[in-house]
Amino acid sequence: MIRIFHTNKLTRQPFFQALINFLHDNQDVTLRQIKARFEEENNIDRQLEAYIKAGYIVRENRRYRNGFHLLDSLDDLTLDQEIFVDTESAIFEKLKGVTVKQQITNTSNHLIIEEEVDVVRERLTLDSYFYKMRSQETLSLDQEELYSVLGDVNPEYALKYMTSFLLKFTRKERVIQRRPDIFVRALIILGFMEEVAPQTYILTMDIDQESLIFTSQN
């Protein structure tokens, strides 16, 4: 099965995803065959034209085929590039293991959050969470837990409170918070800190005191 990472408005459509897998499994497909296979789908002609115009589908001699390349190498792979990959290929499992170091800055202070982010953005990281909110892509199960706390929060608003709390660990090893809020809960879910006693927290990140880089250990 073909899976797409970092979709856009066209490629996240259920019909598009079903169509490319149909074309992947069948050769010399005609319009009649497409309409027979997807007889309950409306406006097939118009949708096909949009896919062809975008270069995702190719029409030659009244036959249709996929116009994109399936991932066959991890060389030159960049974060957030559109990826089409066969889930039955050997490279699929390798792809899920590729990570990129990302840094999150904010406008409230000089603290920097550093994380190892997987290129498919399925793992729970703050950087991937904010990315999914911007791109409106489907959240993974781990990311859903964070969403249940933060929702579609404004990143700068969240970072203001999260980084302000993290900065307290530059002055003390244990921080007491009498009234934990959603941002404290989010920091725990992300694995940035843990509660060691009621309303008492310790940091689980590495700190560079000079540069104020807080590095996640997840």
TrEMBL record:
<dbReference type="InterPro" id="IPR014924">
    <property type="entry name" value="DUF1803"/>
</dbReference>
<protein>
    <submittedName>
        <fullName>DUF1803 domain-containing protein</fullName>
    </submittedName>
</protein>
<dbReference type="Pfam" id="PF08820">
    <property type="entry name" value="DUF1803"/>
</dbReference>
